[in-house]
Amino acid sequence: MASVKELQQQLGTALLTMDGHNVLNDEASWTAFTQTPQGQHLAGIPREGLYLYEELLRGGIFSTMNNIFPYTARFFSNAQWVHLAEVYRRIYPNTSFQLYRSMEAFPEFLETMASNPAVTCRHNLNEVGDKFPFLADLAWYEGIEVTVQNAPDIVFPQSFEPGVPDSANELGQWKPVWNSARHLKSFIYPVPEILRQMDMTEDEQLTIFSKVKPAPSDILIYRDPETLKARFFRLNPLTSAFMSTSEKSSSYLKTLETLQKTMPELEAIPKEKLFEEGLKLLNQCYSLGVLSGSVTVI
Amino acid sequence: MTQRHQAGFQGTPILGVGLGLRDSLLQETLEATDILDWVEITPENYMGKGGLARQRLEKAMAVYPLVSHGVSLSIGSTDPWDPLYIQQLKELFDIVKPAWFSDHLTFSGINSLYFNDLIPMPRHQASVNHVAERIKYLQDTFQIPVLIENPSFYVNYPDNEMSDEVYLASILEQADCGLLLDVNNVFVNATNHHWDVKAYFDALPLERVVQIHMAGHTEYPEGLVDTHGAPVKEAVWELLDYVLKQCQPSGVMLERDLNIPPFSELRPEIERIKALWEKHYGVIRKTAPRKRKELAG
Q: Are B251 and B212 in contact (CB under 8 A)?
């Protein structure tokens, strides 16, 4: 008799990994699998019963893909999407107890699917990838929304104040506390524009998107503290640099001084003007909820 | 009428009639205090999450006592416990203070990978010993009553040495834990595997029933599937009446996870549970939310 562990491990192989891919499709494949060392403890288990579990697992992934990537899904036929669900869940089996997190590798999977014959062997999936090279970017965009919406709330430090400095004199006394539910991502393709166009396009006309050209941009996705929903914000290079530099600086003042030293376009700006623009930027970030507030410099 | 108890198995509070909390029905659920006494949460929907998930949880806590019913604890797995799961479940319970918590008599992960579904256990003594030890760990770790739910299953393993009811009863006794009895799962299994459904109930230690799930299933050519995506079938209602005659659960609730209709369509099913509850145990006395929280704690 197989031990509980032996049985579970072989069920895991059959139902969750590429080694078990297709073995439940017909009796001959199933019988052959149960005669290998990887499947020997499953001998005698009715194939139909396990096949139902395979269908349930695929169905769970399929509906989660639909929920999280509704725009990306529109570029695939139903048969292609079902095939993607099956090979995706086996190439990237979920390591989290939360089903929605099984989708975290899906954009990467789309990025690399062209090089994997197990993915592209059916349903002309190579053609879809060639025709719409922005699909991975689109999936990243949709996936990050879920990540940001579900991000944990943070406990603010004791000296936290829900505000930003009012004057240049205060810039050296405070440092920022950014909204922790945020993600900054560089996209190759103009995803916001693609989404806007898709809203006005029927499925049959989606081929027009094969003409989309790359247009790199940095986009901040963050959770609005009022609505608790994800917002998307295209960052200009200065704001992007301000956010990343401030993570390593001891105060708002140090951040601005560092930026002036490292960004040629700021070098010639007088200090007063730099601080004035800095305060404007802080107020803008604060009013959008990207910046939660400030803490005192120790 | 059965004499109403003051407390259920292992001192669990008698809560009455509940509903599984679903995002799309949140507002109507919060307003339905005339027919609902408590709600059940799926902890994985809130563990480690902030934002709207946390906000929904707090709204529910302000109105109802909560109990927790997990889907991914993987009680039967031979993997070590997932430390992140245990940590985040503890953190959630520190907030929610559920009256009890439950998960399924299945495994949902192996080799650090998750099925995110409920895979049946083999039924033999080594499996009983393994699961009972795991339940004892949970009882020691969380210090609140632990229930296991009888699952529906669609495959029998050749090495099974026990009937399902003997396997379940053995674990309940050996782990000394409560039972979340899913009446629909028993009906689905009895139909698919050709059991005598009442003999199944009669073989269980029904004094250990703390909670009862009522749900719908879907009929396919191959058999019944426990989808939670349809109204409760008439035969399952009859079985609930049969079970309630023989035990005093602390709560009975409706589960609906797929094809979720407007609340107005679920309401008659909740009212029917309420009517059966009152037929067997009398009227539940309502308590104020704060008092409810104390009760649940």
A: yes
